[in-house]
Hints:
This protein has strands at 2-11, 28-29, 44-45, 48-49, 61-64, 76-77, 80-81, 89-93, 97-98, 103-104, 108-111, 121-130, 142-146, 164-165, 179-186, 193-197. Strands 5-8-1-12-15 form a 5-stranded antiparallel beta sheet, with no helix packed on it. It has a 5-stranded antiparallel beta sheet with strand order 4-11-16-13-14, with no helix packed on it. Strands 2-3 form a two-stranded antiparallel ribbon. It is built from no helices and 16 strands. The protein is globular, with a radius of gyration of 16 Å. It is 0% helix and 34% strand. By secondary structure, it is mainly beta.
Amino acid sequence: MVFLSAFLITELAFSQMNLVPNPSFEQNHGTEPCPFNPADSLLWPDSWISPAPNWGGGNPNYYLTSYCNQYSSVPLNFDGYQYPYEGNAYTLIAIVGDTASMLWREYLQVELTQNLEAGHRYCFSAWLSCGDSAMRATDDIGVYFSDTAIYQNGSENFTFIPQIRNPEGRFLSDKTGWQLFTGSFVAVGGEDILLLEIS
């Protein structure tokens, strides 16, 4: 499981602009019942969705300093102890999960603030931290850009080939600090969806 914070995509040009809305998950909507029951919470970061909410573990977890229960608060929560890289929030995705009969993954998706332009190079970066409760670390994470929103209600993992991948052998295993994941690619043009996934 990996904590996520501070997404950033910039066009490499004379001026740089973050095209990812709510990049560190600070803005949110919904309700949080108190006393807190994770299954009942509707609180979720603005602009972000889970494109495969009914597969495997379902939605990624969302952690805030203002949660009223220690299991979903920051820095102490159900998945470990970690302060945000910046601000007061982060999310957690299970990138490999075990049940008795299957392996499953969780994904995060966001619509960019503007379409990418053909032939332009874009840079993506995110800060990642391995959850204390994780039994494994991975080097197999990537970012896929699409011109179409992605949604799945079935039981298959996505098979997209990400344009940006974490280098093979660079395991995201740091449970006390944050590791920078970054890369760049040249857009085909029209991409306006970012999907964080297991590559």
